[in-house]
Amino acid sequence: MSFFYIPFIVLGLLIFIASFFIVKQQTAAIIERFGKFHSIRQSGLKLKIPLVDRVAGRLSLKIQQLDVIVETKTLDDVFVRLKVSVQYRVLSQKVYDAFYKLDYPHEQITSYVFDVVRAEVPKMKLDDVFVKKDDIALAVKAELNDAMLDYGFDIIKTLVTDIDPDAQVKAAMNRINAAEREKTAAQYEGDAQRILIVEKAKAEAESKRLQGQGIADQRREIARGLEESVEVLNRVGINSQEASALIVVTQHYDTLQSLGEETNSNLILLPNAPQAGSNMLNDMVASFTASNQIGEAMKNAKKKGGDTTK
Protein backbone atom coordinates (compact mmCIF):
# COMPACT_ATOMS: atom_id res chain seq x y z
CA MET A 1 0.00 0.00 0.00
CA SER A 2 2.93 2.36 0.66
CA PHE A 3 3.93 2.26 -3.03
CA PHE A 4 0.46 3.49 -3.93
CA TYR A 5 1.07 6.87 -2.22
CA ILE A 6 4.49 7.51 -3.76
CA PRO A 7 3.18 9.17 -7.00
CA PHE A 8 0.95 11.44 -4.94
CA ILE A 9 3.83 12.36 -2.69
CA VAL A 10 6.07 13.17 -5.68
CA LEU A 11 3.27 15.16 -7.33
CA GLY A 12 2.66 17.11 -4.14
CA LEU A 13 6.35 17.79 -3.80
CA LEU A 14 6.55 19.08 -7.36
CA ILE A 15 3.54 21.30 -6.82
CA PHE A 16 5.07 22.62 -3.61
CA ILE A 17 8.34 23.39 -5.37
CA ALA A 18 6.45 25.04 -8.26
CA SER A 19 4.80 27.36 -5.76
CA PHE A 20 8.07 29.23 -5.28
CA PHE A 21 9.92 31.38 -7.80
CA ILE A 22 12.78 33.86 -7.70
CA VAL A 23 12.75 37.46 -9.00
CA LYS A 24 16.20 38.95 -9.68
CA GLN A 25 17.38 42.33 -8.44
CA GLN A 26 16.14 45.34 -10.49
CA THR A 27 13.47 43.15 -12.10
CA ALA A 28 9.67 43.08 -11.75
CA ALA A 29 7.59 39.94 -12.34
CA ILE A 30 3.96 40.18 -13.51
CA ILE A 31 1.65 37.54 -12.01
CA GLU A 32 -1.61 36.57 -13.74
CA ARG A 33 -4.36 34.40 -12.19
CA PHE A 34 -6.42 32.50 -14.71
CA GLY A 35 -5.13 34.85 -17.43
CA LYS A 36 -6.03 38.02 -15.54
CA PHE A 37 -3.53 40.43 -14.01
CA HIS A 38 -3.13 39.69 -10.34
CA SER A 39 -0.01 41.34 -8.93
CA ILE A 40 3.55 42.59 -9.45
CA ARG A 41 6.35 40.94 -7.51
CA GLN A 42 9.69 42.60 -6.81
CA SER A 43 13.08 40.95 -6.25
CA GLY A 44 13.43 38.00 -3.88
CA LEU A 45 11.89 34.55 -3.24
CA LYS A 46 8.17 34.72 -4.01
CA LEU A 47 5.15 32.41 -3.66
CA LYS A 48 2.33 31.72 -6.13
CA ILE A 49 -0.52 29.26 -6.33
CA PRO A 50 0.45 26.44 -8.66
CA LEU A 51 -1.78 25.82 -11.68
CA VAL A 52 -3.67 29.01 -10.78
CA ASP A 53 -1.07 31.74 -10.89
CA ARG A 54 1.61 32.09 -13.54
CA VAL A 55 4.48 34.45 -14.25
CA ALA A 56 3.23 36.29 -17.35
CA GLY A 57 6.49 38.15 -17.87
CA ARG A 58 9.42 39.97 -16.38
CA LEU A 59 10.52 43.57 -16.93
CA SER A 60 14.01 44.92 -16.24
CA LEU A 61 14.09 48.08 -14.15
CA LYS A 62 17.66 48.88 -15.18
CA ILE A 63 18.60 51.76 -17.45
CA GLN A 64 18.66 50.52 -21.03
CA GLN A 65 19.96 52.06 -24.24
CA LEU A 66 18.53 51.98 -27.72
CA ASP A 67 20.61 53.20 -30.71
CA VAL A 68 18.59 54.56 -33.64
CA ILE A 69 20.12 55.37 -37.06
CA VAL A 70 18.21 58.09 -38.92
CA GLU A 71 18.93 59.26 -42.47
CA THR A 72 17.56 62.65 -43.43
CA LYS A 73 18.33 65.78 -45.47
CA THR A 74 19.59 69.14 -44.28
CA LEU A 75 18.49 72.62 -45.32
CA ASP A 76 21.31 72.82 -47.88
CA ASP A 77 20.21 69.50 -49.48
CA VAL A 78 22.90 67.28 -47.97
CA PHE A 79 21.94 63.75 -46.93
CA VAL A 80 23.24 62.84 -43.50
CA ARG A 81 22.98 59.86 -41.16
CA LEU A 82 22.53 60.53 -37.43
CA LYS A 83 22.98 58.01 -34.66
CA VAL A 84 20.71 58.85 -31.71
CA SER A 85 21.24 56.95 -28.45
CA VAL A 86 18.20 56.87 -26.14
CA GLN A 87 18.69 55.87 -22.50
CA TYR A 88 15.46 54.84 -20.76
CA ARG A 89 14.05 52.71 -17.94
CA VAL A 90 10.75 51.30 -16.74
CA LEU A 91 9.27 53.18 -13.79
CA SER A 92 8.80 50.80 -10.87
CA GLN A 93 5.39 52.31 -10.06
CA LYS A 94 4.21 51.92 -13.67
CA VAL A 95 5.24 48.35 -14.46
CA TYR A 96 1.62 47.49 -15.30
CA ASP A 97 1.43 50.23 -17.97
CA ALA A 98 4.82 49.28 -19.43
CA PHE A 99 3.82 45.61 -19.72
CA TYR A 100 0.20 45.83 -20.85
CA LYS A 101 -0.10 49.14 -22.71
CA LEU A 102 2.89 48.76 -25.06
CA ASP A 103 3.84 45.61 -26.94
CA TYR A 104 7.01 46.77 -28.69
CA PRO A 105 8.62 49.70 -26.83
CA HIS A 106 11.73 49.69 -29.04
CA GLU A 107 9.69 50.22 -32.20
CA GLN A 108 7.65 52.94 -30.51
CA ILE A 109 10.76 54.84 -29.35
CA THR A 110 12.36 54.45 -32.78
CA SER A 111 9.30 55.93 -34.47
CA TYR A 112 9.35 59.03 -32.26
CA VAL A 113 13.11 59.50 -32.82
CA PHE A 114 12.61 59.33 -36.60
CA ASP A 115 9.74 61.81 -36.40
CA VAL A 116 11.62 64.41 -34.33
CA VAL A 117 14.96 64.15 -36.18
CA ARG A 118 13.32 64.43 -39.60
CA ALA A 119 11.42 67.47 -38.36
CA GLU A 120 14.43 69.28 -36.84
CA VAL A 121 17.39 68.53 -39.13
CA PRO A 122 15.80 69.82 -42.39
CA LYS A 123 15.63 73.26 -40.72
CA MET A 124 19.43 73.38 -40.35
CA LYS A 125 22.42 73.57 -42.65
CA LEU A 126 25.01 70.82 -42.41
CA ASP A 127 27.45 72.91 -40.34
CA ASP A 128 24.63 73.82 -37.94
CA VAL A 129 23.78 70.14 -37.45
CA PHE A 130 27.26 69.57 -36.00
CA VAL A 131 27.07 72.71 -33.85
CA LYS A 132 23.47 72.21 -32.61
CA LYS A 133 23.46 68.44 -32.09
CA ASP A 134 22.64 69.02 -28.42
CA ASP A 135 19.52 70.94 -29.45
CA ILE A 136 18.42 67.97 -31.56
CA ALA A 137 19.00 65.63 -28.62
CA LEU A 138 16.95 67.85 -26.29
CA ALA A 139 14.10 68.00 -28.80
CA VAL A 140 14.07 64.20 -29.06
CA LYS A 141 14.10 63.82 -25.25
CA ALA A 142 11.23 66.28 -24.78
CA GLU A 143 9.08 64.51 -27.39
CA LEU A 144 9.83 61.04 -26.02
CA ASN A 145 9.18 62.05 -22.42
CA ASP A 146 5.72 63.36 -23.29
CA ALA A 147 4.86 60.28 -25.33
CA MET A 148 6.44 57.44 -23.33
CA LEU A 149 5.59 58.54 -19.79
CA ASP A 150 1.99 57.34 -20.24
CA TYR A 151 3.37 53.90 -21.09
CA GLY A 152 5.49 53.71 -17.92
CA PHE A 153 8.84 54.58 -19.52
CA ASP A 154 11.13 57.33 -18.26
CA ILE A 155 13.55 58.82 -20.82
CA ILE A 156 16.80 59.43 -18.91
CA LYS A 157 18.87 61.01 -21.67
CA THR A 158 19.20 61.25 -25.44
CA LEU A 159 22.50 61.74 -27.23
CA VAL A 160 23.40 62.41 -30.86
CA THR A 161 26.51 60.24 -30.87
CA ASP A 162 27.38 60.30 -34.59
CA ILE A 163 26.80 62.55 -37.60
CA ASP A 164 27.83 60.98 -40.88
CA PRO A 165 27.32 63.02 -44.08
CA ASP A 166 27.56 61.55 -47.56
CA ALA A 167 31.09 60.42 -48.52
CA GLN A 168 31.42 63.01 -51.29
CA VAL A 169 30.34 65.77 -48.91
CA LYS A 170 32.92 64.67 -46.33
CA ALA A 171 35.62 64.66 -49.00
CA ALA A 172 34.61 68.19 -50.05
CA MET A 173 34.64 69.36 -46.42
CA ASN A 174 38.11 67.89 -45.95
CA ARG A 175 39.34 69.69 -49.07
CA ILE A 176 37.88 72.98 -47.83
CA ASN A 177 39.52 72.48 -44.45
CA ALA A 178 42.85 71.62 -46.08
CA ALA A 179 42.62 74.69 -48.34
CA GLU A 180 41.90 76.94 -45.36
CA ARG A 181 44.88 75.54 -43.49
CA GLU A 182 47.13 75.98 -46.53
CA LYS A 183 45.92 79.56 -46.87
CA THR A 184 46.71 80.24 -43.21
CA ALA A 185 50.12 78.60 -43.57
CA ALA A 186 50.85 80.73 -46.66
CA GLN A 187 49.88 83.88 -44.76
CA TYR A 188 52.20 82.97 -41.89
CA GLU A 189 55.02 82.18 -44.33
CA GLY A 190 54.46 85.52 -46.11
CA ASP A 191 54.54 87.37 -42.79
CA ALA A 192 57.75 85.57 -41.84
CA GLN A 193 59.40 86.42 -45.18
CA ARG A 194 58.30 90.05 -44.89
CA ILE A 195 59.77 90.25 -41.40
CA LEU A 196 63.03 88.73 -42.66
CA ILE A 197 63.22 91.23 -45.52
CA VAL A 198 62.52 94.19 -43.21
CA GLU A 199 65.04 93.01 -40.64
CA LYS A 200 67.63 92.39 -43.36
CA ALA A 201 67.06 95.89 -44.77
CA LYS A 202 67.42 97.37 -41.28
CA ALA A 203 70.62 95.42 -40.76
CA GLU A 204 72.03 96.58 -44.12
CA ALA A 205 71.07 100.17 -43.37
CA GLU A 206 72.76 99.97 -39.98
CA SER A 207 75.80 98.37 -41.62
CA LYS A 208 76.02 101.15 -44.23
CA ARG A 209 75.63 103.79 -41.54
CA LEU A 210 78.39 102.29 -39.45
CA GLN A 211 80.53 101.82 -42.57
CA GLY A 212 80.04 105.47 -43.56
CA GLN A 213 80.79 106.56 -40.03
CA GLY A 214 83.98 104.47 -40.12
CA ILE A 215 85.07 105.95 -43.44
CA ALA A 216 84.39 109.45 -42.18
CA ASP A 217 86.38 108.78 -39.01
CA GLN A 218 89.17 107.27 -41.11
CA ARG A 219 89.34 110.29 -43.41
CA ARG A 220 89.22 112.62 -40.46
CA GLU A 221 92.12 110.85 -38.84
CA ILE A 222 94.02 110.85 -42.17
CA ALA A 223 93.46 114.60 -42.50
CA ARG A 224 94.59 115.13 -38.93
CA GLY A 225 97.65 113.01 -39.57
CA LEU A 226 98.47 114.95 -42.71
CA GLU A 227 98.04 118.21 -40.86
CA GLU A 228 100.41 117.08 -38.14
CA SER A 229 102.90 115.81 -40.74
CA VAL A 230 102.91 119.17 -42.54
CA GLU A 231 103.42 121.01 -39.23
CA VAL A 232 106.37 118.78 -38.35
CA LEU A 233 107.95 119.27 -41.80
CA ASN A 234 107.41 123.04 -41.58
CA ARG A 235 109.32 123.12 -38.32
CA VAL A 236 112.43 121.72 -40.06
CA GLY A 237 112.29 124.28 -42.87
CA ILE A 238 110.24 122.43 -45.50
CA ASN A 239 107.46 124.57 -46.97
CA SER A 240 103.85 123.37 -47.37
CA GLN A 241 104.16 122.53 -51.09
CA GLU A 242 107.31 120.49 -50.56
CA ALA A 243 105.74 118.76 -47.54
CA SER A 244 102.66 117.91 -49.56
CA ALA A 245 104.82 116.49 -52.35
CA LEU A 246 106.76 114.39 -49.84
CA ILE A 247 103.57 113.03 -48.26
CA VAL A 248 102.01 112.19 -51.65
CA VAL A 249 105.15 110.36 -52.79
CA THR A 250 105.31 108.46 -49.47
CA GLN A 251 101.67 107.36 -49.74
CA HIS A 252 102.23 106.40 -53.38
CA TYR A 253 105.05 104.05 -52.45
CA ASP A 254 103.11 102.71 -49.47
CA THR A 255 100.30 101.81 -51.89
CA LEU A 256 102.73 100.05 -54.22
CA GLN A 257 104.13 98.11 -51.28
CA SER A 258 100.69 96.95 -50.12
CA LEU A 259 99.83 95.82 -53.66
CA GLY A 260 103.07 93.86 -53.88
CA GLU A 261 102.22 91.96 -50.71
CA GLU A 262 99.04 90.53 -52.35
CA THR A 263 100.28 87.58 -54.42
CA ASN A 264 96.89 86.85 -56.04
CA SER A 265 96.01 90.44 -56.86
CA ASN A 266 95.19 91.33 -60.50
CA LEU A 267 95.16 95.09 -59.87
CA ILE A 268 97.40 97.28 -62.08
CA LEU A 269 98.21 100.79 -60.82
CA LEU A 270 98.73 103.40 -63.56
CA PRO A 271 100.85 105.48 -63.71
CA ASN A 272 103.48 103.88 -61.46
CA ALA A 273 106.63 105.76 -62.51
CA PRO A 274 108.80 107.41 -59.79
CA GLN A 275 107.68 110.88 -60.87
CA ALA A 276 103.99 109.84 -60.77
CA GLY A 277 103.53 111.16 -57.23
CA SER A 278 105.05 114.54 -58.10
CA ASN A 279 102.96 114.84 -61.27
CA MET A 280 99.84 113.96 -59.33
CA LEU A 281 100.58 116.67 -56.77
CA ASN A 282 101.29 119.28 -59.51
CA ASP A 283 97.98 118.36 -61.19
CA MET A 284 96.12 118.73 -57.89
CA VAL A 285 97.74 122.14 -57.19
CA ALA A 286 96.92 123.32 -60.71
CA SER A 287 93.32 122.17 -60.29
CA PHE A 288 92.94 123.96 -56.97
CA THR A 289 94.48 127.16 -58.44
CA ALA A 290 92.20 127.10 -61.48
CA SER A 291 89.17 126.44 -59.29
CA ASN A 292 90.01 129.38 -57.07
CA GLN A 293 90.49 131.67 -60.08
CA ILE A 294 87.12 130.66 -61.55
CA GLY A 295 85.45 131.29 -58.19
CA GLU A 296 86.98 134.77 -57.93
CA ALA A 297 85.91 135.62 -61.50
CA MET A 298 82.31 134.57 -60.77
CA LYS A 299 82.22 136.72 -57.62
CA ASN A 300 83.55 139.79 -59.52
CA ALA A 301 80.98 139.27 -62.29
CA LYS A 302 78.16 139.21 -59.75
CA LYS A 303 79.41 142.40 -58.11
CA LYS A 304 79.59 144.25 -61.44
CA GLY A 305 76.12 143.10 -62.36
CA GLY A 306 74.80 144.39 -59.05
CA ASP A 307 76.42 147.82 -59.57
CA THR A 308 74.93 148.15 -63.09
CA THR A 309 71.45 147.40 -61.79
CA LYS A 310 71.71 150.15 -59.27
Structure characterization notes:
With 310 residues, the chain is of the alpha+beta class. It contains eight helices and eight strands. It has helices at 2-18, 95-100, 105-120, 126-131, 133-148, 167-235, 240-261, 276-309; strands at 20-23, 27-33, 36-41, 44-47, 53-60, 64-73, 79-90, 153-165. The protein has a three-stranded antiparallel β-sheet with strand order 3-2-5. It has a three-stranded antiparallel β-sheet with strand order 6-7-8. Strand 2 and strand 3 form a beta hairpin. Helix 6 crosses helix 7 (240-261) and helix 7 packs across helix 8 (276-309). The chain starts with a helix and ends with a helix. The mean pLDDT is 80.
Q: How would the blueprint of this fold be written?
A:
Elements: H1 2-18, E1 20-23, E2 27-33, E3 36-41, E4 44-47, E5 53-60, E6 64-73, E7 79-90, H2 95-100, H3 105-120, H4 126-131, H5 133-148, E8 153-165, H6 167-235, H7 240-261, H8 276-309
Antiparallel strand pairs: 1-4, 2-3, 2-5, 6-7, 7-8
Helix pairs in contact: 3-5, 6-7, 7-8
